[in-house]
Amino acid sequence: MSDIIKLLPDHVANQIAAGEVVQRPASVVKELLENAIDAGAMQVQLIVKDAGKTLIQVIDNGKGMSMTDARMAFERHATSKIATADDLFNLYTKGFRGEALASVAAISQVAVKSKRQEDDLGTLLEIEGSKVSRQEPVVTSQGTMISVRNLFYNVPARRKFLKSDQVELRNITDEFHRVAMVHPEVAMSFTHNDTSLFNLVKSTYRQRIVGIMGSKTSEKLVPVDEETELVTVKGFIGKPEFARKTRGLQYLFVNDRFVRHNYLSHAVASAFEGLLKDKSNPSYFLYLTVPRDSVDINIHPTKTEVKFDDEHSLYAILRSSVKHALGQFSVNAIDFQQEKQYEVPYDVAKNAHSQVPKIEVNPDFNPFQQESNTNTSYATPSFQKPLTQPWEALYAGIEETSQLIDETHAQGSTSSMFHKAEVEQRNIFQLQRKYVISTLKSGLLVVNQQRAHERILYEKLLRQLTVQNGVSQQLLFPIKLNLPANEVAVLINLQEELEHTGFLFKTLEHNVVEIEGLPLELKEKDVPLVLEAIIAKEQQELPENKYSPADRLAQTMAVTMSIKTGEALNSEAMESLLDELFACKEPEITASGRKIFINLSGDSLHSKFN
User: Fold this and answer.
1) Are 173 and 320 in the same domain?
2) 14 and 160 belong to one structural domain
3) Nearest Cα to 215, choosing from 473, 482, 12?
4) Angle ∠(474,477,481) on CA atoms, nearest 5
């Protein structure tokens, strides 16, 4: 019997390793950007086409590579970062395992141009499927340019599992944000399909966050600055009133590396206890610096998960640091010396003096004189103050209006009485501000008011999206919102569908969203909440064939815009809710499949008393 265990060829081993290192185009972006930072670059350009499926290119002005180094960089486990295993606990750089570039070259077509400052010529290297197809000297500037084309071209099974361009671009943008936020000293730009998305200049941490998230972000940030023997905590937290339903603006960095750590994230959330609305999440951009030998960053191939020596102490320090920052913010926001009285400017108070009121008398006024023209205004008596203020004119004729209303009520008292009796005959009422209950011949109808309204809005919005006949209410003053660029990109992709529901956008670009028209059912105060829910839903990586974009948008808007549990309804509102519900095509369940109402028969009620 022959031996069955064989040594894998290098190109096959590299393709298998790529499955761990290169999960999607964003993985390549992360490795290339981190390599540029490790090379000491002060300017980094990221150029992407078709969400990274066609091209990912990173250009930097770092140290560059020699001809030999450029070739060795694509060999498995070749690295300049470590020499012994002990070096893993004293890392100053980001990439160190020496397998990323080899894995990328195994599943794509790679071209490299690189030159060191002391060299006259640079190096051109082309690799396709782990095989070097070209290497020669070339004239180029100092630094390195790496182009990765046709990702997964030789692994079609992996390529078909990639998500839509919108999802992949969002993941690339996230990786760009994570590198850019922790290196504000590096000027960075990001271009997708020849469209500039970000152009970040050298700045401070706060300026870099504002440059990425939008100009309005600055007023929402509270600085955090604590230094202990175990850890130094710096950065910013979001003010409690700007907390969001989603977790999109939560960034935790350890030793200039973005990490995910549920335990430390819980420490931040616990510091906000009692300050946030229900189901809201705080925003934070926190930079932790710990001794390099107290953290292990090699427990996961993507190096986004870390292990600390003393997590309990870090938890306590981080929680108290955030609490301290929140306490300082609260104290600074309150002026305890201010007296409870109207503030009058000093100059006004100093120069103010009492004036004797002037009495104006009309000597020509005759109370017995009749006006021949009814359109002529009556003269104002000398004892009555003229209606000179605009708001006072609103009350002119109020007595006549009241008299007319009284007469109308007197004439229609009989019909009003019968109408009231008809309403009361329906026996409709609200229970616990959650259920609408109405009597039936066979028993009781119990309707969940929130789910019923969800169904009504869902069918109405879906009809508008399908027929494209949404009605819009024009706003007197446009609503202006400041959102991160990646969230605005989601709205741009959905602009046509949103306009079919009744939204009218005046501006929709980069960090600015300006709305001049809303759907009829949407209140102005709920606009940020609705848009946040729409963006969050679109950013979830749901199976794309489960719901159509129109269906998904209608569901999200219906859930967010519906009346909520705890909202009081009058009789007319409850009647209208039931009438509209049973006019729906499917009144029994919501769009997500939850039951809307139940019938309690007389027999089932009778059985409760046996």
Assistant:
1) no
2) yes
3) 482
4) 100
Query: Which band of pLDDT confidence, cut at 50, 70 and 90, is reported for residue 243?
Result: confident
- C-beta of residue 237 within 8 angstroms of C-beta of residue 222: yes
Number of domains the chain is built from: 3
Highest average pLDDT, of 382-391, 528-537, 573-582, comes from: 573-582
Answering whether pTM is above 0.85, one says no
Q: Within a domain: residue 556?
A: yes
Q: What's the pLDDT at 14? A: 65
Beta-bridge mates of residue 222? 237
pLDDT of res. 180: 94
436 touches 578 (CB < 8 A):
yes
pLDDT-based confidence at 399, cuts 50/70/90? very low
Residues of the chain by 3-state class (helix, strand, coil), percent to 5: 40, 20, 40
Ramachandran assignment for 40, one of left (phi > 0), alpha (psi -120 to 50 degrees), beta (any other): left
Give the burial class of 578: count Cβ atoms within 10 A of its Cβ; 0-12 exposed, 13-18 middle, 19 or more buried: buried
Q: What is the DSSP letter of 524?
A: G
**Predicted pLDDT at 285:** 94
d(CA 556, CA 536): 9
Give the Cα separation of 412 and 89 in Å (integer).
88
Query: Domain ends where: 182, 202, 222?
Result: 202
Q: Is residue 580 part of a domain?
A: yes
Last residue of a domain, one of 202, 227, 257: 202
Answer whether residue 395 shows pLDDT above 90.
no
Judged by DSSP in three states, 148 sits in strand
Smallest CA-to-CA distance from 70 within 148, 156, 132, 149 is with: 132
> In Å, how far from its chain's centre is CA 491?
11
Say what the pLDDT of residue 335 is. Answer: 42
- Statement: residue 274 has pLDDT above 60: yes
Domain co-membership, 198 together with 223 = no
Number of Cβ within 10 Å of residue 162's Cβ equals 17
**Which range of residues forms the domain containing residue 168?**
10-84+93-202
CATH number reported for the structural domain that contains residue 586 in this entry: 3.30.1370.100
Which DSSP category does 127 fall into? Answer: E
Tokens at 344, concatenated: 């009058």
User: What are the pLDDT digits (tens) for 45-101?
Assistant: 999 999 999 999 999 999 999 988 888 888 876 666 555 555 555 555 665 455 678
Asked if residue 347 belongs to a domain, the reply is no
Q: How many CA atoms lie within 13 A of 150 on its CB side?
A: 12
- 531 has a pLDDT exceeding 60: yes
CA distance 108 to 53: 10
Tell me, what's the pLDDT at 420? 40
Is the predicted pLDDT of residue 115 greater than 90, yes or no? yes
**Is residue 444 within a helix (H) or strand (E), and if so which, with residue range?**
strand 443-448
- The C-alpha angle with vertex 214 and arms to 208 and 216, in degrees rounded to 5, equals 110
Q: Are 234 and 246 in contact (CB under 8 A)?
A: no
